Amino acid sequence: MIDQKLLKRTLENRFTLKYTSQAEIEKISKANFILFLFWLDKDNITFEHGFYRFSKNKKITVYEEMGHNHYTGDNYPPIFFLECFLGFSFRQALYLLKHFYYKVSKQMIERELYSTFGETKTKEDEQLKPNLQYIMEENLLTHADQDKRNTAYKRLYGYLTQRGFERFVIQNMVNQKWLMMNNNYNMCFITYEDIETKDKIIAITQKGTLTDNGFKQNNTTERNTGFLYTPKNTSNPDTLFIFESCLDLFSFQQLIWLNKIKTPDNYISISLNGCSNRNYIYKTLNKYPSIRNVFICLDNDTSGIKSTEIIQRQLMFKTFDLRPILRDLTFQNQHNKIKDWNEALKLTDKIDIDLNTYKE
Q1: Which residues of the chain fall below pLDDT 50?
Q2: Coil, strand, or helix at residue 228?
Q3: How far is it, in rounded angstroms, from Cα 60 to Cα 48?
Q4: What's the predicted TM-score (pTM) here?
Q5: CB-based contacts of 283: which residues, under 8 Å, 6+ apart?
Q6: Would you call 84 exposed, middle or buried from its count of C-beta atoms within 10 A (0-12, 13-18, 19+)?
Q7: The 3-state secondary structure of 165-204, one letter per residue
Q8: 99-104: long-range contacts (C-beta < 8 A, 24 or more apart)?
Q9: What pLDDT digit, counting tens, does each position of 150-173 carry?
Q10: 67-82: per-residue pLDDT in tens?
């Protein structure tokens, strides 16, 4: 782990830092950030439910390239992370990152990391498969108690209509078993192992229904899983739409049902439930090898822009970034920013898009 003399010298600013270009900063920032934090202090990292977390703030998930807050959607590149959460100055953070990138044996750190979390990781994998079928019986929208059922629908309609959803869209989501509600009155978006039978649930994406409640939670039985939506009779899809949240996905779907957006016939849509769950994209592409066109529909903000760039670099076939449409809507909205597809519902009358013209 880090030499304490090196750390002390850094904290006391007793070091020489040569000029570092922006290109070099970007290069050294690609060092494995999980290993870097573990090298700084073993206690920086914990392993919970299949993910590495920052021990001082459990809302922060640590990935190889950055830290990410799944509650706010904020990304923290290495240097920015060290400034925000560990109290280092920019100069100190840069010095440590350069030292790690050029002088530290990553293999040694990786072995130490595995010896610390290897057994725990195996145990977590075994525990990562909760029984999610409970929602079938708990679902308040189909509850035998009429008062509970009425309260649930009131909460559901109150929240979603305020977010711009039409009642027919909400009811369709419920009827098709894409949307349920648990005993805490949280919306539960359901992902099924088999979309035809819809009998085995592999993921539940929860979202609070109080306007001042930012509660979000993803429960999965397997890693790299988000929310999958497939229109009826979709077989061998050739097009994939990628969204950041379930609300954005169904907002886009509402625009399709209202004929405001025309799409290829054979498409499916996924929600990553946060920008960093990009492995779910590759998992989906492996499951549906017929896909040839990908539409990236992430938020028009810093994390959405960064993730879109990463996805476009990593995918080997044609991708289309739909954020320019959100920017055009922002202009039409007198420059009041339209950040995502849920906010785009405010301008439904101004939307008329044919995505078939994008498709190869």
Answers
A1: 119-128
A2: strand
A3: 12
A4: 0.66
A5: 224, 225
A6: middle
A7: CCHHHHHHHHHCCCEEECCCCCEEEEEECCCCCCCCEEEE
A8: 99/6, 100/28, 100/31, 100/36, 100/39, 101/27, 101/28, 101/31, 102/28, 104/39
A9: 999 999 999 999 999 999 999 999
A10: 887 666 677 889 999 9
